[in-house]
Q: What sequence folds into this?
């Protein structure tokens, strides 16, 4: 293939454009900037060809071959489109000697949950007590010495709450350890060690950001509702958009920027999961990519005026415009927005969605997103991938949204949303 010219010259390379990363190529095309897609896993070899990309390249583990495949495009930027693409994207940044990117020498700080918190500890920032090992007995001994139950057992790096388990006793720790150790996680990585952490009690928040050259913009803050899943962790039930200022929000913003600096996230998007505890904000984990699952772009635009993916594209194409317009500014809420994450309460065949019409007639109803087809085979929800789908509630009145959300949550907890046989 000949080297491209014009608007096709120096395209942006997106590694694993999945989840919300699927939207990035379309956002860059709005700036007449084309993209090349690198798929990091052979598991995605047979994906349907996506016409929004100039080319799609499958990485088979041979980094030199991938370099040769990309050289003809001479990419201007290399971005992770989802969690599984973060490490390879950073490796390619190093190979192509790109400067407008996070430092590849510090990738582990943004990917490995253990090193994340060790770095925060080193800088005296709030962090969790933790321990990692490939030895079950050492993990048990650490938990016993901590003497503060429950504890959390999880992989060092994965996605969608994969393997995360809240353990109330030693038997739970053993079960969780053996479920994780030496098993492949959702990123296709074999878990060679297991991470144990203290349990953070409080309210969980998502703080989404876009950064350029160390300048950070908080694109939105979300407050979560969640439900404990026996033998695992929490199921995410809903999230609601928070104002950009307030006592808690101001502390979250300050702390998030400190975390981004500590973990050397200088460029790109981040999805930061933070627990608000009785001692203030404590990081659960930083994810060096867009907020995942399924996003209804139009709902976000009505609420905030943009999506995180749109901000990310602007930052890469017109960095100074992004800095001038957004950095050091608080986001504005034009309409209140909440999202309910549907849950399947058991395995089976989805026979009906009896509450669908009632939800559609609610005052704040905006849209459904990612719903499963009737008569499809479904699995009990045990992670945060978002397979059952979502409903978005949008309204000028925060009270109306709260009432509608409360009703949907009541139906969900009573297993009245779906009929599964």
A:
């Amino acid at each position: 293939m000949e080297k491209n010219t014009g608007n096709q010259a120096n395209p942006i390379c997106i590694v694993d454009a999945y989840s919300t990363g699927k939207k990035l190529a379309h956002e860059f095309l709005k700036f007449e900037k084309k993209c090349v897609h690198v798929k990091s896993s052979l598991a995605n070899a047979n994906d349907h060809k996506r016409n929004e990309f100039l080319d799609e390249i499958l990485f088979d583990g041979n980094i030199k071959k991938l370099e040769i495949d990309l050289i003809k495009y001479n990419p201007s930027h290399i971005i992770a489109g989802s969690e599984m693409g973060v490490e390879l994207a950073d490796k390619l940044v190093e190979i192509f000697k790109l400067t407008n990117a996070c430092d590849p020498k510090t990738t582990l700080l943004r990917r490995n949950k253990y090193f994340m918190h060790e770095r925060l500890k080193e800088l005296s920032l709030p962090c969790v007590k933790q321990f990692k090992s490939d030895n079950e007995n050492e993990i048990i001994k650490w938990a016993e010495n901590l003497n503060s139950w429950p504890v959390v057992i999880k992989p060092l790096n994965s996605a969608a709450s994969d393997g995360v388990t809240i353990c109330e006793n030693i038997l739970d720790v053993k079960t969780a350890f053996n479920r994780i150790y030496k098993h492949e996680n959702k990123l296709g990585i074999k878990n060679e060690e297991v991470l144990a952490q203290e349990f953070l009690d409080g309210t969980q928040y998502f703080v989404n950001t876009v950064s350029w050259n160390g300048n950070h913009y908080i694109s939105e803050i979300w407050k979560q509702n969640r439900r404990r899943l026996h033998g695992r962790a929490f199921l995410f039930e809903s999230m609601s958009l928070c104002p950009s200022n307030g006592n808690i929000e101001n502390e979250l913003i300050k702390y998030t920027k400190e975390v981004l600096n500590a973990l050397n996230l200088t460029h790109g998007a981040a999805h930061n999961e933070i627990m608000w505890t009785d001692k203030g904000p404590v990081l659960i984990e930083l994810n060096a990519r867009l907020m995942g699952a399924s996003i209804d772009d139009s709902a976000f635009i009505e609420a905030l005026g943009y999506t995180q993916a749109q901000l990310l594209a602007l930052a890469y194409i017109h960095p100074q415009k992004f800095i001038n317009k957004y950095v050091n500014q608080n986001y504005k809420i034009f309409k209140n927005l909440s999202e309910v994450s549907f849950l399947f309460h058991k395995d089976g065949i989805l026979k009906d969605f009896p509450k669908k019409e009632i939800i559609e007639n609610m005052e704040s109803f905006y849209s459904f997103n990612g719903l499963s087809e009737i008569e499809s085979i479904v699995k009990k929800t045990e992670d945060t991938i978002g397979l059952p789908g979502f409903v978005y509630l949008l309204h000028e009145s925060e009270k109306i949204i709260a009432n509608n959300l409360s009703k949907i949550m009541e139906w969900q907890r009573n297993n009245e949303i779906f009929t599964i046989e």
